[in-house]
Design brief:
197 residues, alpha+beta, four-stranded antiparallel sheet, three-stranded antiparallel sheet, 7 helices, binds zinc ion
Length: 197
């Protein structure tokens, strides 16, 4: 499990500023949380989860795509076979270091599919299950639209729910665009700013 820099359970919400940022403290730190970025992250992970769990629409292809991979890649097939399956490819081993693709995702052109698979396998080390940037961008846009905005006034119940949901995120630290969801100042850093140390 990822080491979190603080335990969200210990956080105490002290208020909001500009109807945009939530202020909070725990024993050692002060937090400024961007309500839109935080909510966007929560929505995004929810949508990704739904995407990954849904049965993807597939289309059969007349002539199967044959993929040849290196021995090393073949040995790591469990890393990428499953991921491709989840994205809507039907792919099976077909002899030594060769794989046969018989179905591709509905949203993909046949000409795109082969390039996509090869690229995906090549970059598997850096890839997540969702390495299709088209899908990712779509999910990011949907989360941005659905999330509460800056300048939206939140009730304390809504703030509490937001912090709780953020703490359940796999990556609570940034929104899907890469902006931080919160800024943290330690008690020591604040002390230093006031030249108390
Ligand atoms: Zn946004
Ligand atoms: Zn964002």
């Amino acid at each position: 499990p990822m080491l979190k820099p603080f335990d969200f359970a210990d956080i105490q919400i002290t208020g909001t500023i500009f109807d945009t940022y939530i202020t909070a403290v725990d024993g050692m730190n002060f937090y400024l949380i961007d309500q839109h970025a935080a909510h966007e992250r929560i929505f995004y992970e929810k949508l990704v989860g739904e995407y990954e769990n849904s049965d993807k629409a597939r289309q059969p292809i007349m002539v199967p795509i044959m993929i040849n991979v290196s021995l090393a890649t073949s040995e790591n097939k469990f890393d990428w076979l499953d991921a491709l399956e989840k994205m809507g490819f039907t792919i099976a081993e077909f002899g030594q270091n060769t794989y046969r693709v018989s179905e591709i995702p509905m949203f993909m052109e046949l000409s795109e599919a082969e390039d996509f698979i090869n690229e995906f396998i090549e970059n598997i080390q850096n890839s997540t299950n969702l390495s299709n940037s088209v899908v990712i961008n779509k999910l990011i846009m949907m989360s941005c639209k659905a999330a509460i905005k800056a300048n939206d006034k939140l009730s304390s119940a809504e703030i509490a729910a937001l912090i709780k949901d953020l703490s359940a995120c796999i990556n609570p630290f940034s929104c899907p665009h890469g902006r931080p969801t919160f800024i943290k100042l330690t008690r020591y850093e604040i002390k230093k700013m006031f030249k108390r140390v």
